[in-house]
TrEMBL record:
Superkingdom of this protein's organism: Eukaryota
Protein name, entry field: Uncharacterized protein
Chain positions covered by the region annotation Disordered: 1-27
Amino acid sequence: MSSNDSDIENISLADSSEGSFIEEKSEEEVDEDNVIVIDRHFRINDYVLVKFDMKKDVVHYVGRIEEINHNMAKVRFMRLSKIPNTFLFPEIEDLSSIPLNDIKTKLPNPKASKNPKRGSSKYTFDNSLWVITNLR
């Protein structure tokens, strides 16, 4: 195992005959760490899952890294669409500097599709992000 392999933890659920990757569990029992690949090698323009610890709860947001400085990243956050696994950038840019430790993982690059009526793009991820608790 190379040093790069030891830094990336691949976790997946068993494949069923129908091609689904979700075990027979209720949504509350599914562990989001079993659905996504944990990758902490961040670069500019990476799509990431960010964890925010609130007073009573934990929420997760999807965003794209715009800058990295030491142990901080400037992230442009997206909003969850009504379409599963699909996000969009809000009209008013949501840009925040956050500690790299708050980034849970790098996400695969989404597929972008342009909305001709609104002029905005929607970004769809292949991974099932719906199992992530409090995804916004």
